[in-house]
Design goal:
The radius of gyration is 22 Å and the shape is elongated. By secondary structure, the chain is an alpha+beta fold. The longest helix is centred in the N-terminal third of the chain and has 32 residues. Helix 1 runs antiparallel to helix 4. Helix content is 43%, strand content 18%. Strands 1-2 form a two-stranded antiparallel ribbon.
């Protein structure tokens, strides 16, 4: 005699149905945390070379460290946006951001995005289950 097994999948179906919105919301939170971490990383570098432009003296960051703030334009431009479902992008809004992040042939890199992303990625598995 064949036996029949029936599973009540209503709770599982409800969880799956709720996932996309919750996951997007969670990812938006992660993107905002990356923005916060990037912004807070500015001015944490040991002092590098000093130079004067007009009446303002700027103390640059050391190579390999996040930039020190000069005018604040880069720091103020850090933001995130939702590109599509489950796709978020953290970016800066200045043309020279990539030159600071990666360096140039005349200037060593002052990474500010990659360290923040890497730090968030490191704890991702521990934070992920909290959305449920």
């Amino acid at each position: 005699m064949a036996s029949e097994i029936r599973l009540d999948t209503r709770m599982l179906d409800a969880l799956i149905a709720s996932l996309p919105g919750n996951l997007d919301e969670w990812l938006a939170g992660e993107a905002q945390e990356i923005v916060n971490d990037v912004v807070l990383s500015f001015n944490t570098s040991p002092a590098g070379r000093s130079y004067t432009r007009g009446s303002v003296t700027h103390v640059a960051s050391q190579v390999g460290n996040p930039p020190n703030v000069d005018l604040g334009t880069l720091r103020a431009s850090i933001r995130w946006e939702k590109v599509s479902h489950l796709h978020f992008q953290v970016m800066d809004g200045v043309e020279y951001g990539i030159a600071l992040e990666d360096g140039t042939e005349r200037m060593g890199a002052r990474p500010f995005m990659a360290p923040a992303v890497d730090a968030r990625r490191a704890g991702l598995a521990q934070r992920f289950p909290r959305i449920f």
